[in-house]
Each structure stands twice: as C-alpha cells, then as structure tokens.
User: Fold these one by one.
Assistant:
Number 1:
Amino acid sequence: MTATATTLLVAKPELEEEHAEVIRATLPLVGANVNEITQVFYRNLFSNHPSLIRDLFNRGNQAQGAQQRALAASIATFATHLVDPSLPNPVDLLSRIGHKHASLGVTEESYPVVHENLFAAIVEVLGADVVTEPVATAWDRVYWLMANTLIAFEKGLYDEVNVAPGDVFRKARVVGRVDDTDDVVAFVVESSDAEKPLPGFRPGQYVSVGVVLADGARQLRQYSLIGTPEPGHLSFAVRRVDAAGDAPAGEVSSFLHNNVQVGDEIDITVPFGDLTIDTEATTPLVLISAGIGDTPMVGILDYLAANSSPRHTVVLHADRSPSTHPLRTDMHALVTSLPNASLDVWYETEPGDARSGLLDISQVELPEGADVYICGGNGFLQAVRAQLQTAGVAEDKVHFELFSPNDWLV
C-alpha cells in the first residue's frame, strides 16, 4: 500500500451522533437479515443491469453466493467501525476492495447504481414500517461515507498508474506459455501496441485478465504477477479450477488452459493489489502460501533475487504433493539464490525430503519482528492466522491476499 493510499484510508469518517444512535439500534436487525438483503440486491441489480453479470461480476462466485456474503460482511464491518470510537477505520478491508475495484475498472458512476438497488433491497426485506425515514437516512449516510472513501481511494490508485478512472484495460499478446503442472499454466504477455508497453508492477500485485467466452460473456479474473517487475512483459500463472461438488468449473481458467496459445490476444489490466512488500525496508520477511497462492510469493522472491536482497526471508509452502506444487522449481531456485533465505515445504503425499502433512508454524523458527505475507484458500488462511496468533505475531505485521471472496477476514 502506498503512502498516498494509506493517507486516504487512515482518516476515519465521522458519522453524526443522531445517525450513529440509529445505526447502533438497527445494526443487529440489519446484520440478522443482511444475507437476504444482499441476495435481493444482486437479484435486482442483475435484473436491472444484465450486462454486469455477463461482463463484470464473477458468475461462479455469484452462483455459490460467495460474493453476496462478502458484500454483506464488508458493509456490516464498516458500520460497526463507524459507531465504535475505539475501532480505527478498517483500512485493510477498504484497501482490498479498492484495489479489486480498480482492477475491474470501476468508477464513481457505479456507486449510485449500487445504492439504488441496495436500498430497494433493504426496504423489500425489512419492510417500509421498519425502514422509517430516520433509519433510511442513517444507513444512507453510512453507505455514502463508505462509497466516498472508496471513490477517493480508487481515484488515487488510478492517478498512481497515470490512467483516467476506469481506463485500465490493454490488449496484450501471448508471447510465452509454459505448462508448469497438470493444472497450472504460466503465460507471458506483452502489449499489442509496441508504442505502449505494459507497465511495471510492485512485487505481489495482480492483473485482471478478460476473455470472451462461448456464450459471448466477457468474464474477468485476477492473477498474481510473477517475474521481475520491469515494464514490457507481464507473467502470470493460472490454475485450472475443476468442478467439485456444488462448485462449478472455473470459466476463465478453463478457457485460458484450453484455448489461449502463443500469438493469441487477451485483455489485461494495469497491475493493482496491496499484498506488496516495502522495498525500502530491511525487516525480515515470512512468505506463507498454499497451492496456487504461492504466485504472489514467487513474484516477491523474483524481486528480492533480482536485487540480491540481504533481507532475512523465510518461505513456507503447503501443497498436496511435489507434482501439484505450482512454480516449484522457480521457488527453490529463487530461495537458493538469496543470501539469507530458507524454504520449508509441507506435502500431504509423497513428501520426500519435505515435511509431511499440513503446514505447521510451530515446526519452524520465525524471525523476530518479521512482516508476514499469506496467500491461499480461505480455510488455509484461517488456520495460519490462528497459528500466528498462538505464536505471538502481532496482527499489524500480518498481510493477506485472497483468491476468492470471503466473509470472515473483514
């Protein structure tokens, strides 16, 4: 997170006391019904604006309800922080949302559309007798405090990369494709316009990749960047998401695996994302990942190796087996190239020289005062977060990236 962005988010908006009293009184009721409210909201939003579900929102997450739960949790969290003087502004929450919005090209014109459909859903679920004028006014105030904070932050993100708000998409040509594992492919792309090279990035950032599917829908997904962050080329790895239980197969990951080859063209955004290291700092680093969650960590390691960084760096990774470990060779080579780095890996099967079973932080020594970066599935992140708390790692030293919507980390 840059200093400019931090400044924009740290200052906590003030909610007038008459509105705060209403929010405190109604927050339990809204919280108890917030999942239904968000379901109705998205139903109305997509009915009124069908292009959003085709061309912007992740259809897989919508089908499973993941995005609805994440929206519900974020609104409830922001309201809770507003009315509790002891709580700071939820900077990490707002930063994650803002970077994701910027990577999708969201602009301030979207917020009135969300407002209209969200408040119609609140009235539909709770009833007009409950949503009186004072209640509607108070929650309207909460919404616009959050929206205006995000609008300003997102404008700052656009300014930092020298683009107009929303103008984040570029045409890119695939110049390299490597089948890394059975279900992971790494792509290298460059700008289709030689006079407008793709920008550099901060280690740990991601891009949105857009493809047009068989039904004509343009779907977007985010992929962490790997390789050195100089302008010109961008590299990212994609794990194919297969159908499992009620979860559908990944539309974009499957399309990229099955259809995109060297010479093909895709849509790609300029980089965003706040799981970035302070490149001026000298504090130790702990990079913890599972599965395809190691991609931002490899991006960070690429940067450290390119700069022969002397920082004490501890890398911890968990996977099913060596054959499913994405970018395994790269990770080992990068750690070996650093003068003060170590790597511990846990495999559930075929561990060989690695550790066996699930990642266990108690089996390794963490450097004092380290900044800790974590990326993986929701269950993995929750487990690691609990282990770090047990180990006495301060909350403000722990940084997360999520590859799916969540309703627990906010």
Number 2:
Amino acid sequence: MDMTETLDAMRSDLPGCSLVVFTDLGSKLVLCTSAASKPAQEELDRLSDLAQTVLDGGVAEGAQPVLASGGGDARAGVAILASGNETKVFLRAPGEAAEALTCICGPDADLQKVVDCGRATLDGIVAAS
C-alpha cells in the first residue's frame, strides 16, 4: 500500500475525519495528504506550521516541565486542539523520526480512536521506511 492509500484508509476508518496530513516537522513540509475535498496549499502550510509549533515549538516548550516530570520522553507525542466545529489531532512519529500526522475531525470525534488509529498508521509508515 502506498502512502496515499495508507492515509486514505486511515481517514475512512475515522467517521467525521475530513483531512489527514503527513508532515516533516523539521522542514515543515507536507509530504502527503488524504482529504474529503482538496484543501488549499495555504491551509496545508498552516497545518504543517501548527504541527511543528505544538509538537516541537513554543507550545511544546511550554509543556516541557510537565512532560519531563513523568520521567519518560520529554517530547510531546500528541496534541489536541478543539474548537466549536472541529478538532485537530497532532501525532508525532515514534522514535527519532521527524514526521507527524495531523487529523482534522468533527467536534464529536472519538479522540481515543483517532489517536490509536493515527499511532498505528505512523508505526506502519515508519516500519516501511
């Protein structure tokens, strides 16, 4: 299964998920997408910037004391931003990989399912590379 098919399968497994974006956090480049309707490049660029901010940038830095107090990996692995009409879920790839997934879902999304499905998808992508 190629990357697009992998992301399409993930999106189809998540009711209300309209967009999945696979991003390189270091370069902030969008590597692949799966979308119900084609998003503008500017929207994808904003999501890539936001993924970097919440997983590696200012938001992640603000959470550092809390993450470090747990004794494990002090990097943010998951971030969730919810508004009235959508929920954005950001997931970091495991290990030293610099990639992340961003999932845009409806406000009533099953967040545990989104996180679990996203983790499984990222694990598969990293294992295949």
Number 3:
Amino acid sequence: MADKKGPVATANRMAMSRALGAAFLNHQVEQLEKNVSAKSNGPWRDRRFASPQANADSMRGAHNQQAKARIPSGGNFRGAKRGGGEDFPELEKRGDFGKKEGARSDKEKDADMIVVDASVLVHAVGHLKKWCSYGREEIIIVPLEALNTLDLLKKGTSALAQRARSASRLLEAQVGSNPRIRVQRDDAFVLWDDIPFKDMPTGVTASSCPEWVRRTICCARWEVEHATEEVKVSGANTGKKPRVLFAVLASPPDPGSLEAHQGGPAAASPVPLPAPQVNKFESRSSGTLILQWATRSDVEVLVVNATPSHPTAPKDIPPPGRRSADHGRRSGESGRRSPDDKRTASGRGGRRGPHVRTGERGATPPGGGLVERPPAVMAMMEAVAQPSRVVRVLARGEKLDP
C-alpha cells in the first residue's frame, strides 16, 4: 500500500503545484492588463505626479486585497469600465497643467523686427541673448556701424573692452547659424537728407549729427520702410504691418560698476598702476546721443536697461596656483623664509599659534596685502594714479633742491 500511495501523492502534489502556478500567473496577467487599460490614470505626459492607484497596484501582492477606488465627495463623474468590471473615476485632463504663468509672457515677442544699437550689444547683451533664444520670433538686425563700434571698443583690458569682445563672440556664434539674426546689407540704408526730423531743438541741425549716428539711423529707417519684405523672406508674415523697434540703452552704467568685476582695487597691486586710459570711442556705447536722434527721426524706440556682466570669483578667493595665509604658502618667497622670520611672523599673530584656542583665528596684518607699503610709497602711488600729475624721476647723482 505504501508503494501505491507514494507515486499517487507525488503526482497530486505536482498537479496542485502546476495549478497554483497557473493561477498565480493568471492573476498577475490580469493585474497588468488592468493597469494598462485603465483610463483613469491618463497619459503620462498629462500627469505631473504618479497616480495613487498605479502605486497601489504596483505594491499589491498576490494575496493582498485590492483597495476600492475613492469616489469624489461632490459632483458627478464619468466612470470608465475596466477589465474586471469595476468603476474608476476619470481624471480631468489639463493640457497646461504644471506650466508657470510667466512662461507665456516670456514667449511673447516684443516686436516683429528689432534693430539693435551698439549700446545694447555692449551693456545689455542679456536682452540680445533672450531674443536669440529658441522659441522666440523676433528678427534681429545688427547695423554695420554697430559692428564697427565693437571693433573700436574691444581693444584693451578694460571692462568695456571685455564687454565688447563678449558681444562680438555672441554675434559670431549666432550670425549664420540662427536665421533670425541678420547683419545689415550694404544697400540697406536710406539717404540722410530724405529723413524727416521733428522736434529739433534750437541751434541743432541735421548736418551737425556725427557720421556714425547717421549710418545707424539710416539703417533703422530703411528697416522701417522695408519691414514687410524682410518679414516675407522669413516666412512669418501675419497679414498686418510688421512692427519695427530700435533698441537703445536707457542710460549708461556707472564706470565704477564696470571695473568692479575685474578684481581688487588698484591699491592692492604690488606695483604702482598707471592712470586708466579712457577710450575715445566710449561715447558710442552710451546710447545717449543715438537715442536723441532716433526719437527725432520718427523711429519707434525700445529702451532697455543694462544687464549685469557674468559673475566672477569673489575677491577673497586666491588666484589659481596660490594659497591663502590660513591654508599654506601664498607665493614662492614664503618657502625661502628663515626660521627667524617664521618666529617673527608667529609673534605678530599672523598665523595660528598654540595659544589660540580651537575655533579662533589669529590676528591678520592691517595691510591686508602681501607687502606692507610705507606711507611714502602709498603717496607716490596716489600721485602716479592721477593723470594730470607729473612725477619727476631723479637721475643718478642728482639731488633734490631743498
């Protein structure tokens, strides 16, 4: 009997095991079909967060009881039948769900065509980057005289020259690759004598206007008169007259704010610095004169504010290749100090000694620089920094008269 019951019991267990496995697989397939065919979850692009029902189905096991769908407290809803015959509420679809209100205003174009002045390229390049960005529709016209102004301003190491070089690099990257950024053609100008001026002040005539202002205004007037042709070429014609604006800087920034991002003050330099040389073409980037003549020539003006330059490293961070006084050597000369110098420096409290408790810092020298200059050197540096002050250098053996 034992021999007969053994094979029968084994066969029964195998059959039961296969039946349980098939039932488990059927249950899993049914759950997956319900999750896929559920209309209550909606498309994944329309959902900002995962559906609670989807999370519950993914965490539900084979022996757990399925939770009932929650019904809203008020109002009617449309139910969607799923594979198991259960009713689930259909979520309301919103195409603009999760979008910020400011996103629409950023996409609204300022005008159909914008002629930019050199003042905008130098001091308000942030607006130019916004107009060049993907999704905008403005057509940007860069006058040839604005490019000439950038070439005149980008020589040197001043903050103005750095801004001019930054604008030149941006135009080189955009012109040719971006079809909406265009440079003035050689024949795209009107004659200066054909422009009617209004509200001319007493004693000011059209012949007194500088040549670089004339060329820029003539370019803007030509774009105003031929705006329809330019818009048709770009394929953005809407059937109405295009709006053309001439972008000019509102007011020139403070010269001190331009030099602030270059580094520390001139007093921190180990050698006397010469007086800063003012670029004679700096007035072209102010936008003051071009704004007056643009208003008189009946050109619609778009006044923009100056945008800040790129952020630079803080002044308290040492330059690359050097270390601060609290973390090690500042220059190669500190590695050649004698023990007496080190003891003298530690006696002044410049470095942290054994008498300083944890969390405290030693006193720093009042000078704040690498070398403490005597008053005579500081006076000489102030004299050299003045452009109108002449410093006489004595020859060898020459004595100063009392």
